[in-house]
Each structure stands twice: as C-alpha cells, then as structure tokens.
C-alpha cells in the first residue's frame, strides 16, 4: 500500500482500499520472467533509455507501446528480436488489452512545438490515454507510474517549486493542451487510487536532455547543440533571462525506477536543481561546442514560463535520489551523440567517421 500521505498541504491523499489482486500467474514458476512491464512511449527519448535500464534486469520482460509520433524504432533497435522484449505499434487513445505487472505511462509528445502541433490530440493522449492505462491497471492489478511534468506549475509564482505548490496555469493558452492535460492525468491517477485502490506513482519531470533527443525536436538543449554543430546562430528566445534546470537522462531514469519500486505515490519532482538562464545556457554551449557561433535573440512564444527549478527535498528523502550529472558533463555526452547522427546525415563531419553505428 502506498505510504505517501499528503501533498504537502496536509490533505490526505491515500486510500485504505486494497488494490485489485494481481494475476495469479504473476509468480508462476512456469513464467520465464518475474515482472512484465509495459512502457507507453517507450520508443521516445526518455522511454527508450528507461527500456535499456529495465532490460538490464534479466527478470524483467518489457513491452513497449508507441505510435511513433515523436518516438522511433531506431531508439530500440538493439532490443528488437530479444526474447524478453516486445514492440507494439499502438496509440494509447485506444484501449490496450494485455497482461502486465507494472505500467510506466510516458506516452505524450513533450516538446512544445510537437505538443502544440495537434493540441486536441495532445489532450486526448493525456486524458483518454491515461484513462485507458488506468483501466488496464485496474483490470490486471498493475502498479502504474505517470510521467507528469514541471509544466503543471505553469508560470510559477513560487520558486523553487515544491510539490505542494498548486501552480499558476493558464487554462485556455496554447500550452494548456499539455499542462492542463497532465493536470487532469494526475487527477485521474488519484481518483483511481482513492476509488479503486490502484497502486499509483506520479513523477513530475523537469527539463531533461541527453542522447536520442530528436535533433529537430525544438527544445532548447537539442536546438543549441544542433545549431552549434551546424555552425548556425544559437537562437535565444526573448528575453533570455527565463530560467530552466536541466537533468541528464540517466539520472532521470534512475529516479523513475526508484519511484516505481518505492512506497511513495508522489507526486515527486524529478529534476536537476542547477538553474540557468537561456543566455547562460547558450554561452555554455558556445564555449564547450563551438566558440565561433553567434548568439542571436529571437521572438518567443506565448505563456513561456519565466522561471523553473525543482525543489527536490521529497525525492531526496523518500527515494534517496538526487542527480549526479552536471550540465557541463552532460552536454558533451549529448554533443557526441548529435555529432554522430548529424554526420550520418552528412550535414556535418564527425570527429571519428568509424563510430557511426554507436550513434544511438
Ligand atoms: O531554440 C530555443 C528553444 C527554446 N528556448 C527557450 O528555452 C526554454 C525552454 O524551452 P523548451 O522548449 O526546451 O522547454 P519548456 O521548458 O518550454 O517545456 C518543457 O518543459 C518540461 C517538460 O515537461 C517538457 O519537455 C517541455 O514541455 C524556454 O524559455 C524557451 O523560450 C530558446 O531560448 N531557444
């Protein structure tokens, strides 16, 4: 039974109801693996790194469901054909009838340009997709983890943001399909927990970066690295003093697994508390990757949060988690991956032309 008892405001969030019984076959000796895990959005950037980590454990069988809107089979190439791995082309807005013990529910485009591309579809993914996955969790007695977002805090008036902060969100803005969608998804998680006893976990993920981000993803770290490698100006959106905190993907995946395996429902912030303005980030990328590129100020989009930094006290206390990789150490790891992938597309040269097959 989940033990996290409050959202920080003293409001009781737990249920006394027992979760539904798991499949009687879960611990059957005839089963090769002990744990069958569904990862929705497992072909995406964070999802595929999570799959890599889960597959390291020989007792895990991993099923990925992805519609490939922003994910790619390339990210999972090394697991295709593996006896403990299965890949399904599936859109979570449709029900999925399978037998699993755990569900990591990641499916949703995360880059603002992609989630704004078809906002109605984004909100369907967050609301109907989460309902479908909760329905699955209820039917088979699985534990479900939702990857929520720091965007639930909107343009925060409290800084840094603790989980107890309820946020400052525009319900009718261009980002609402994502941030309000994730807020409803969190509500659904807690309602299924209270009403049906479902075992839930909620992670609020702050900006994350690393290898396998889509090169033209539109997010700031991927944009700056690709621009630096192509010798194009780094596009800082006005005013440039807005801040973000960037977590390297391996740290984030470690936090997700600790949350799933631990006793706390969350919500728990997962992010790196190091805070940078976008001008500072551009200067760091320039210095580390290509000192000859220009930094250019460009127009911003509406509702861009002015500041964002996680308070990770809860993650430290409840999960024993804190990020290890500093931005200056993580950026070169991502640069190498981007250099190889861009080199493969023959857009730039590689440092070592023989390493192309290590690009993912
Ligand atoms: O080329 C760019 C792109 C972005 N930016 C700025 O960089 C900041 C970060 O923008 P991103 O698009 O990377 O990400 P955002 O912080 O807006 O949203 C992200 O928040 C957390 C996650 O849940 C999601 O991955 C995503 O929604 C913004 O202030 C944006 O204006 C630039 O200055 N230049």
The tally of strands reads 13
- Mean pLDDT across residues: 91
- Which ions and ligands are bound to the chains? uridine-5'-diphosphate-xylopyranose
CATH architecture call of the domain at 35-206 and 249-270: 3-Layer(aba) Sandwich
CATH class of the domain at 35-206 and 249-270: Alpha Beta
Which spans have pLDDT < 50 for at least 5 consecutive residues?
5-10, 349-360
- CATH topology-level name of the domain at 35-206 and 249-270: Rossmann fold
Main sheet attributes: strand count, strand direction, barrel closure: 7 strands, parallel
The percentage helix is 25-40%
Rounded to the nearest angstrom, the distance between the terminal CA atoms is 38 Å
Number of helices: 9
Compute the CA-based radius of gyration: 20 Å
The CATH superfamily of the domain at 35-206 and 249-270 is known as: NAD(P)-binding Rossmann-like Domain
GO molecular function, one term: NAD+ binding
Enzyme class: lyase
Main location: cytoplasm
EC number: 4.1.1.35
Which keywords apply here?
EC 4.1.1.35; NAD; NAD+ binding; 7-stranded parallel beta sheet; UDP-glucuronate decarboxylase; alpha/beta; two-stranded parallel ribbon; Rossmann fold; 360 residues; NAD(P)-bd_dom
């Amino acid at each position: 039974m989940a033990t996290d008892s409050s959202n920080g405001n003293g409001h009781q969030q737990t249920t006394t109801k027992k979760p539904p019984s798991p499949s009687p076959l879960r611990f059957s000796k005839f089963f090769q693996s002990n744990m069958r895990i569904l990862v929705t959005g497992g072909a995406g950037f964070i999802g595929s790194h999570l799959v890599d980590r889960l597959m390291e454990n020989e007792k895990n069988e991993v099923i990925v469901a992805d519609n490939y809107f922003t994910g790619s089979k390339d990210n999972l190439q090394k697991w295709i054909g593996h006896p403990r791995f299965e890949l399904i082309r599936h859109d979570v807005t449709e029900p999925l009838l399978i037998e699993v013990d755990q569900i990591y529910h990641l499916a949703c485009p995360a880059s603002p340009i992609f989630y704004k591309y078809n906002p109605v579809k984004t909100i369907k993914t967050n609301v109907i997709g989460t309902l479908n996955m909760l329905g699955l969790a209820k039917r088979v007695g699985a534990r479900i983890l939702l990857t929520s977002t720091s965007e639930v805090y909107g343009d925060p008036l409290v800084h840094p943001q603790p989980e107890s902060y309820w946020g400052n969100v525009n319900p009718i803005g261009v980002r609402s399909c994502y941030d309000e969608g994730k807020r409803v998804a969190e509500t659904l998680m807690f309602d299924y927990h209270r009403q049906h006893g479902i075992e839930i976990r909620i992670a609020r993920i702050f900006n994350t970066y690393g290898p396998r981000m889509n090169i033209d993803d539109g997010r700031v770290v991927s944009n700056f690295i690709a621009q630096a490698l192509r010798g194009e100006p780094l596009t800082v959106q006005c005013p440039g003093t807005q801040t973000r905190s960037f977590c390297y993907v391996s740290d984030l995946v470690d936090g997700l697994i600790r949350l799933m395996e631990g006793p706390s429902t969350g919500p728990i912030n997962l992010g790196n508390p190091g805070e940078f303005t976008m001008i500072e980030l551009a200067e760091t990328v320039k210095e580390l990757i290509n000192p000859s590129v220009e930094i250019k100020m460009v127009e911003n989009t509406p509702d861009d949060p002015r500041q964002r930094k996680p308070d990770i006290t809860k993650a430290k206390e409840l999960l024993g988690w804190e990020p290890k990789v500093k931005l200056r150490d993580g950026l070169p790891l991502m640069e190498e991956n981007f250099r190889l992938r861009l080199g493969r597309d023959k857009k730039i040269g590689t440092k070592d032309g023989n390493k192309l097959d290590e690009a993912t």
